[in-house]
Structures are given as structure tokens and as C-alpha cells.
Amino acid sequence: MTSPALPLTVPIPKWAYAVALVALFVAWVVLQENGIALGQAAETVHEFFHDGRHALGVPCH
Predict the structure, then answer these.
(1) What is the rounded CA–CA span in Å between residue 40 and residue 46?
(2) Which 3 state secondary structure label does DSSP give 5?
(3) What CA–CA distance (Å, rounded) separates 33 from 8?
(4) Which of 2-11, 30-39, 40-49: highest mean pLDDT?
(5) Quick one: pLDDT band at residue 38, thresholds 50, 70, 90?
(6) Could you say which DSSP state residue 6 is in?
């Protein structure tokens, strides 16, 4: 008689959690940035992020 197969566990490196957290933060900034937080570069960065929101399929206007 055979025992049931155990689920396969994949070790996740500690740095992967930091990378995922940074990626989530960057995605949040791209989706939420409206030009106020970035000072002098606000116009250029806002347009870049605006296009990024459209590329991600987020309605913004």
C-alpha cells in the first residue's frame, strides 16, 4: 500500500518578498500618482504614468 503524495514545497528566497513589495509599491505609485507628489518633474512623470495607466487598462478619465 502506498501513502498519499505530499504536496511539493518550493523554497522562496527572502529577497523575493522584498522584490514583490517594491513591485507592489511601484504599481501603486503608477496607478495613483497625479502630479502633486513629484515636484518639478511632475508634468513629465505624470504623462508617463498616465500612459502607463492606459497600458494597464485602468480607466483614469
Answers:
(1) 11
(2) coil
(3) 40
(4) 2-11
(5) low
(6) P
Between CA 6 and CA 28 the distance in angstroms is 37
Task: Report how far Cα 25 is from the mean position of its chain's Cα atoms.
Answer: 6
What value does the mean pLDDT of the chain take? 78
Which residue intervals of the chain are DSSP H helices?
Answer: 14-32, 42-55
Reported confidence tier of residue 15, pLDDT bands at 50, 70, 90: very high
Helix pair angle (14-32, 42-55), 10° resolution: 110
Instruction: Determine contact, residues 38/51, Cβ cutoff 8 Å.
Output: no
**Residue 40 to residues 31, 36, 45, 46: CA-CA distances in angstroms?**
20, 9, 10, 11
Q: What is the distance between the alpha carbons of residues 34 and 41, in angstroms, rounded to a whole number?
A: 12
